[in-house]
Design brief:
The chain is an all-alpha fold and 148 residues long. 63% of the residues lie in helices and 0% in strands. The protein is globular. The relative contact order is 0.11.
Length: 148
């Protein structure tokens, strides 16, 4: 075994790395939210109404007879996150979306909820270690939202 006398330097362990990680987690969320808010403020109907995404009273007053599938899935995965770990919950989220494509539009919100819950249970560092590209970076966004 050959030993060198050249001192090793630590690369990438300074404050710039922490700032870079924070930006990598927060910037996509900010961009998506700002784009979503911009789209919701546009009057797409062409009328002169000042209401923004107003719901009709008839739609709000009718109560759903059962819980929506995405709410049932979210609650099931949150329990699984507590009983097992976030990695298992994320795997089952991906399997549920693959098996039932209609859940895909709810995938990001469920993953963010899992990220927020993981921070409460495991702390930010350990919660971030479970992050994976399920529903883009929504789990990591949920973790980042609970850090700040």
């Amino acid at each position: 075994m050959k030993h060198t006398t050249t001192p090793r330097t630590r690369r990438g362990r300074g404050p710039a790395r922490g700032i870079g990680r924070t930006l990598a987690l927060v910037l996509p969320v900010v961009l998506v939210l700002s784009g979503t808010l911009a789209v919701t403020r546009v009057n797409w109907s062409g009328g002169s109404s000042n209401s923004v995404l107003a719901a009709s009273v008839a739609d709000v007053s009718t109560r759903a007879s059962s819980r929506a599938p995405q709410d049932v899935l979210r609650d099931k995965l949150l329990l699984e996150l507590q009983d097992r770990n976030p990695g298992v919950a994320l795997t089952h989220l991906q399997q549920a979306v693959n098996g039932r494509p209609s859940l895909a539009r709810h995938c990001a919100s469920i993953a963010r909820a899992l990220g927020r819950a993981a921070v409460r249970i495991y702390g930010p560092t350990r919660a971030q270690s479970y992050a994976r590209p399920v529903c883009d970076t929504s789990f990591a966004s949920g973790v980042a939202a609970r850090r700040g």
